[in-house]
């Protein structure tokens, strides 16, 4: 496995970087969304990342060019070229920062306790 890895022309080679600086490469289709990628990585967690495992896939977030990706964003929508390697950061994060959005303000108004009860209800 040298640096000149053959990447299929219909796949995006995603190099994911953890906070610790550890990296691992995964092949994904341009149709794959950020949440599907997080789930796949969670299900196929690399052995060398074991000391940085997370409890569930939902808290894994992808960062591309300094921005948190929402779960429904696909690699194709980001314009990542198939057949090439793209780099993203993978971080555990309970919620996405959304400084400008309406619902963020409502969430903070309602306070923490109701927020937790809502998520329990969903489960």
Automatic annotation (TrEMBL):
Cellular-component GO terms for this entry: plasma membrane
Keyword Lipoprotein (UniProt): yes
Broad class of the protein's primary localization: membrane
Source domain of life: Eukaryota
Keyword Acetylation part of the UniProt annotation: no
Keywords from the UniProt entry: Cell membrane, Lipoprotein, Membrane, Methylation, Prenylation
Any one Pfam family match given in the protein's UniProt record, by short name: Rad60-SLD_2
PANTHER family, alphabetized: UBIQUITIN-LIKE PROTEIN 3 (PTHR13169:SF0), UBIQUITIN-LIKE PROTEIN 3 HCG-1 PROTEIN (PTHR13169)
Protein's UniProt name: Ubiquitin 3-like protein
